[in-house]
Design goal:
Strand content: 5-15%
Distance between the termini: 42 Å
Strand order of the largest sheet: 1-2
Largest sheet: 2 strands, antiparallel
Number of helices: 3
Order of helices and strands: HHEEH
Structural class: mainly alpha
Amino acid sequence: MLVNSREADRRDYAGSPRSAKPEHFPIARIVIVVGLVTAMIGLIWLLFPSLPWVGHLPGDIAVERGNFRRYFPLVTCILLSLIASALFCLIGRFMR
């Protein structure tokens, strides 16, 4: 079967369209970055199993009455949210 020369130019050696190259799939980069971030978090967690300041910042709310104990790590959550937002902003800038 004869193939149009333009169509032949658009196909690679395996016969698939060139648009299937990895650089056209940004999801692969996202998966790699998420994997690296997860590995970094795991390494930090392994090296520092208990960070004394996490959950005990000024502004974290603790209520204790008899048998009842309720804890709201409000400031810790805000701090972790800011760190995650900055991290994702940096990742987004590098993905462009």
